[in-house]
Amino acid sequence: MAEPAPIDISKHCLAVRLRRMNRAVTAIYDDAIRPLGVKISQLNILVVADRRGEPTPSDVGRILHLEASTLSRNLERMRRRGWIESVPSAGDGRLQPFRLTDSGRRLLSEAHPMWKNAQEKASALLGEETVKAIMSSPAATLGKG
After folding, report:
1. Residues 6+ apart with CB under 8 A from 50
2. What is the pLDDT of residue 94?
3. The pTM is what?
4. Which CATH number is correct for 38-128, 3.40.1170.60, 3.30.390.30, 1.10.10.10, 2.40.30.10?
């Protein structure tokens, strides 16, 4: 006899387990870089901007799989903090490219050792096999750049 739906879902749902793991891992990184006033989600936006040069918000959203409203809120906060700036263009404002400022680059450099420490803690929490599986999963790749 099959298990009732609530029992089956609570025991076997990958989505809920991944969300719980994501929250635990995100907390490790956020705690590590909190002294700099940045969250790991924002740090990753800065990384993509640095690697891409002058991406549009849609480029970053596609690469990081972020919803437009979430990305827009983060970009506005990051502009106010002076970490990014808009690149002048004649196009649609929603498509307006942006780039890191000197302050944004300094932030990335300052965050790097903190990130490394968080990376070690997260790797220890997840275990070597899980880390390997995540890093090799096509669903987790950021693509080129």
Report:
1. 100, 104, 105, 108
2. 57
3. 0.87
4. 1.10.10.10
